[in-house]
Amino acid sequence: MIRRIAVSSKVGDARARHYLGTLKTIFPDISLSAVATAAVYTIDTRLSLKEIERAAGRLTNLLTETYSTQSIPHPQDYAYAIEIGYLPGVTDNVGKTARETIEDSTRRKFRADEAVYSSTFLFLSGTLTREEVENCAHELHNQLIERVNIYSAAEVQEGFPIIVPKVKLESVRKSVDEVDLDVSDEELSRIGKEGIKDADGSRRGPLALSLSAMKVIRAHFKNLDRNPTDVELEALAQTWSEHCKHTIFADPLDEVGDGIYHRYIKGATQKIRKQKGKKDFCVSVFKDNSGAIAFDDTYLVTHKVETHNAPSALDPFGGSVTAIVGVNRDCLGFGLGAKPIANVYGFCVADPHDERTLFRDKEKTQTLLPARRILEGVVRGINAGGNQSGIPTPLGFVATDPSFRGKPLVFGGTIGLLPRTVLGRKMYEKRARPGDYIVMLGGRVGLDGIHGATFSSESLSKGSPATAVQIGDPITQKKFSDAIVREARDKGLYNSITDNGAGGLSGSVGEMAREAGGCMVDLDTVPLKYSGLEPWQIWISESQERMTLAVPKGKWPAFKKIMDRHDVEATRIGMFTKSGKCIVRYRGKTVMDMSLKFLHDGRPIIHQRTKLTNTVRSDLTVSREVDLKKTLLDILARPNVGSTAFISEQYDFEVQGTSVTKPLHGRGRVNADSAVLQPLPDSSRGIILAHGYCPWYSAIDTYAMAATAIDTAVRNAICAGASREHLAILDNFCWSISESSERLYELKRAAEACYDIAVAYGTPFISGKDSMHNDFRGFGENGQFVHISALPTLLVSALGIIPDVARAMTIDWKCTGDVLYLVGETNDELGASEYAAMLGLSGGHAPKVNVKRNAKVYDAIVKANAQGLVASILGVGRGGLGVALAKQSIAGQMGARVDLSRIPGKARQSDAILFSESQGRILVSVRSTCEKAFEKLLKGIPHARIGEASGTDLSIELPGARVDVPCPSLTDAYRSYFKEW
Amino acid sequence: MNPVRNQQKLKRKRNPTISNGVKRPHVILFSGYGLNTEDETKAAFESVGATADIVHLNDVIARPNLLKKAHIIVFGGGFAYGDDTGAGKAYGNRVKAHLGGALQEFLTRDTLMLGICNGFQILTSAGILPGALISNDMPRYICRWVDLKVENDSPWLRGITSLSLPIAHGEGKYYAPPVQLALLSKASSIGVKYTKGEMYRHFDLPANPNGSLEDIAGVLGHGGRVLGLMPHPERAVRFTALPHWTLLREEYVRKGKEMPKEGPGIQLFRNAVQYFL
């Protein structure tokens, strides 16, 4: 019998008040007077009356809550009730915890087909129409993952209907076992694009295999004298996907026969490592789930940044939880398992005030979520994923541009710590051996994320599968993370480990099989969330929170025991072999039998061609007679520049007790572009994290965009206390319309910049990722076709090691009388600047990176810091000098008198001096007794002594102009954009 | 080492000496199901001379005798069961159902117990400390530093009148019915209260971050031997953990003084160890 327990607050419900506030803000005209809530658990198992009472008691804090097992308690005078719960099959973490609580109270496990389903009831009071309530409900749920039911008070006098969102898969099997490829090119191409055709004529969803790839597959199986099975074709689609093989970066491009990844990214690292010689700090780069560098003689530090863009457009919350929890597994899956010690994030989104309504279909039934809800959702996702995992989030950013309206870019990164050796074993090397058990660890397999890898290799459009959306379960992952990092790893109980990300088991087992030389998998043994899955679905499902390990036979009992104690499900699903083949069985039949060579290397290589883009270079179209003071305040109030403290403060940056400099600097709490950690309790060595990005410059020149991203990341790291001696970087490319040769040209230029700048600075790439199809193809309000391509974007993440965290630096001006310096040159480089964007100006020059000069600047700063001369420091970035000075003033809650009329560089006009985004510039304050020592270090480097910190006004002297702004006005402007968030 | 003998010694006198001659109180830190601050809390205890073990809840349930060798039990911070169904509820229920007796027995000895953040929520859910922690007034997770004042003589807080520590929680508003609040106050059982101090002045942020009744940030039980608090002392054991330490560094430099090494949180751990020496 289905039972229901409802729990509601009896001491004032903050969440209900919050709902009321949110709805009144969004719908100011409706007469909503009150909101009440109840948490409801729908229990699908047999429980006695006594058991249900006991369970209810455990789900309720009797001091602050009441429960009912008979009805859903509601206010007397409510008008409508809204029930929001999950759709069948969507991860329901609350339901799962309730189930475990009930199991513990009855001391009896649920059967596999029994469950608890959570939902929330909202009771709305006031004079409301059904339509108004529907609008409210629409605002509060996401139709792709949640169900909603609306009841008027009159309708449900007999009680609320009970809904059980149980997964029921059709019992009639409609899948085909093998796929006939002996068809016309047109049909072959359709199979690649739309998927395998099942018995009922429906298509399974994109394989994202090109016609030439399909032809190679056809030829391969013709040789074998048989058709491929559906499992084989699906597995090939996963393995060969752009998402997994990075075909665009790997394949030849113009004269670059070895591909741009090999030539420019890996090539840069090889060259730098050679140049560094004995000082090379790279340990494991480009070959594992993360990149690793030396921390000290005993430990390594790893870093990896991922994106999760397409799913975040559909379900921003689920997409971003998965982004962060997924990249945590790239850390746990590095070597034999690094401990995650920090997360970083980045959101490239449309301005939340962007009011465009977009649809995925011409019929306008599938609305894209509004820009505001996408940002809200992705912010909440990292909150849930990072906080619940107990990993600090010290750094992140928000960047806005209208081009991110179709697909947001959601970056998630994880830094890890790993001993170099344990019991004489190198922890950064791994190898599955023939005879090892293939063990799946963590969550179970459902339909989640089927076609995830192939889906993200396609543009977002109508056919985008809703099952592509997964919701992470950080606690399941935390449980196996503890079990691995604290116990199993250091006991040497397994030979290899990797995460289940794109392509699920087909990806992880397929990859590890290369280490051993083959594998044999029995799909019947894979634990499932619910019955009825087809073998191909089990093989490629991207259900989250799973790792795959190679466990030697003799160590299996000890391994299994540890996992049992930690309440972690571990299952043997097969064995690694040396057959050279990947063999998969299901119900006594072989459903896949493929040589590893074809699986991994059979893909056709495409020779890609680029075409020069015809960008007309022009000067900035300007009327440059602006009110400089107002302009400065307006720029501070823009989402690309203004405070995102509301995000920084809802992410735990203190957990693990390693925080040295915080995400917000100074009294005025200004967002920093770097963070410093002390990862070990008994060593003062530190880790510096920093980022650099400037997608806007892509409108002018992708070389400048990429060069700036690297320069900015390096500069931000230097300004936190790093030195080029021990500084590595990571690249994350997010491109769009990558099939066009013009975009490929821009990609090539960006890759060239990566090589040039990284080699010049001696900062090797240690890991990277690319996401090449950030396009939205859909329809606008009038049904017109709309194509939105995200700006070509390179995020560069820096990872530096310093000997003593006590030398870390922050941006806030410290003391009255401190002397202010500007180091570096300011040129007229306003093209695609924040200033130009605000005024709607096009053209102009993007900043040029002068690596020789900048390197001198950065090295001088390192020396100054080593001598203890620096009181405050900030790299000049988006918004130029005006914004940088304002940020230091806000952070220190202190004014300054500054003269910018005679600074080095070619900028002459006041607006260019104030807002040009020339690279390589740093603002430094030093105490007055250190002036001489500091200037000595700057010999031969362009710099100017620009003033002194004093008073409460920021007063800036410019050629023929003067800007005077009180610090409180700057602060208000800086905090204004997200004030209500 | 003979845990039973130690236990008797503990009962008999204030100065227990472990039978192997080492004067080190032993700490057991609970783990599992999403608790996550065990490592840094263990490091904090060890840095002031304690020995410490991280033990999974399931292991303690399987062998409750493990607790007999402990002088201090800690339920640290984290997200047990993801805070699903309410912070600390699911873990607290399990503790109460399976270890209620063992923990009572532990507390009949002259021992100490600490619940930090999620651990505090667990201790209230398990009925070891009074009151409840409910959603912050602004129902969102918040991470920042707060100021605290101390008006009692709990062994955990000896010698401390005020200190600043970080918080990080979504359900940290302390609630208890008026009668109970009055009782707490009367019995000097309010552990720490949010107050206007250095952080408040520095950052211009509200002193009470979550709407806690009577500004309560932590409460005491068993004559002060059990402390539950929302702020995290284990994240404030180093000077460079302070949110404004780079400003303080400048002040020290200008006064020609050495910058301190320790942060304000370390004193709690030192107090706990001192209690047994």
From TrEMBL, chain A:
Binding site for Mg(2+) 1: 306
InterPro entries named in the record: PRibForGlyAmidine_synth_PurL, PurL_linker, PurM-like_C_dom, PurM-like_C_sf, PurM-like_N, PurM-like_N_sf
MF annotations from Gene Ontology: ATP binding; magnesium ion binding; phosphoribosylformylglycinamidine synthase activity
Pfam families xrefs: AIRS, AIRS_C, FGAR-AT_linker
Functional pathway: Purine metabolism; IMP biosynthesis via de novo pathway; 5-amino-1-(5-phospho-D-ribosyl)imidazole from N(2)-formyl-N(1)-(5-phospho-D-ribosyl)glycinamide: step 1/2
UniProt keyword Membrane, yes or no: no
Transmembrane segments: none
Major subcellular location class: cytoplasm
Function: Part of the phosphoribosylformylglycinamidine synthase complex involved in the purines biosynthetic pathway. Catalyzes the ATP-dependent conversion of formylglycinamide ribonucleotide (FGAR) and glutamine to yield formylglycinamidine ribonucleotide (FGAM) and glutamate. The FGAM synthase complex is composed of three subunits. PurQ produces an ammonia molecule by converting glutamine to glutamate. PurL transfers the ammonia molecule to FGAR to form FGAM in an ATP-dependent manner.
Protein name: Phosphoribosylformylglycinamidine synthase subunit PurL
Annotated source species: Candidatus Kaiserbacteria bacterium GW2011_GWA1_50_28
Classification lineage: Bacteria, Candidatus Kaiseribacteriota
From TrEMBL, chain B:
Pfam family of the protein (one): GATase_5
GO biological process: 'de novo' IMP biosynthetic process
GO molecular function, one term: hydrolase activity
Region (Disordered): 1-20
Superkingdom field: Bacteria
GO cellular component, one term: cytoplasm
Keywords, sorted A to Z: ATP-binding, Cytoplasm, Glutamine amidotransferase, Hydrolase, Ligase, Nucleotide-binding, Purine biosynthesis
Residue intervals passing through the bilayer: none
Stored PANTHER family: PHOSPHORIBOSYLFORMYLGLYCINAMIDINE SYNTHASE
Designated name of the protein: Phosphoribosylformylglycinamidine synthase subunit I
Species of origin: Candidatus Kaiserbacteria bacterium GW2011_GWC2_49_12
